[in-house]
Design goal:
The longest helix has 20 residues. With 180 residues, the chain is α+β, with helices and mostly antiparallel strands. The N and C termini lie far apart (71 Å).
């Protein structure tokens, strides 16, 4: 192969690379859904992460209750359960306003489609001063098993929350079972 041919390949690679990087991408505030309308992303909870002071998670296997104590999360129920503060903080990351979510249905009529007719988890979040409370219902996994369907109790909107809602929830309940 000659140096001229190598230079030609580099020129073609630069042209194709430039075309690739300059092609139009979707806006960061919108997600294009194949075969459907453009679905905006938005914040899920009206409470900022720094304002959250209590979290209660209820599943069929029981209830976990955590309260913020300074900079770390303390287990209130079941008392003495070895759930680490970092796991609770990671769990909350998918619920807080810093995390944008995908709206699946703005006015869900049939909650069974999303596993929300009989939710797998109920999450109650309170501000540190107890002035505001939000309840979130978590349904089933989406078809690709990459996220969970969820909705707030005060809305009919169904959203997708990241897989970590289930993953960190499972870790917390497993840690609580180890206490027994």
């Amino acid at each position: 192969m000659t140096w001229g041919r190598i230079a030609t390949y580099y020129v073609f690679a630069a042209i194709l690379g430039g075309f690739f990087f300059l092609s139009e991408e979707p806006s960061s505030s919108e997600i294009a859904v194949k075969g459907g309308p453009v679905v905006p992303q938005r914040q899920f909870l009206p409470i900022e992460r720094a304002e959250i002071g209590e979290v209660q998670i209820t599943r069929t296997e029981g209830t976990l209750h955590f309260k913020l104590n300074g900079e770390s999360w303390k287990v209130i129920r079941p008392a003495g359960a070895p759930v680490t503060s970092g796991v609770v903080a990671s769990f909350l990351e998918d619920l807080t306003p810093e995390k944008e979510i995908r709206i699946m249905d703005n006015n869900a009529e049939d909650l069974a489609v999303y596993g929300l007719d009989n939710p797998s988890s109920k999450i109650v979040i309170r501000t540190g001063d107890g002035g505001q409370e939000v309840t979130v219902f978590v349904g089933s996994l989406n078809p690709s098993s990459s996220a969970y369907y969820a909705r707030r109790s005060d809305q009919r909107t169904v959203v997708l929350l990241g897989y970590n809602i289930g993953y960190y929830g499972d870790l917390m309940f497993e840690s609580a079972r180890q206490k027994q």
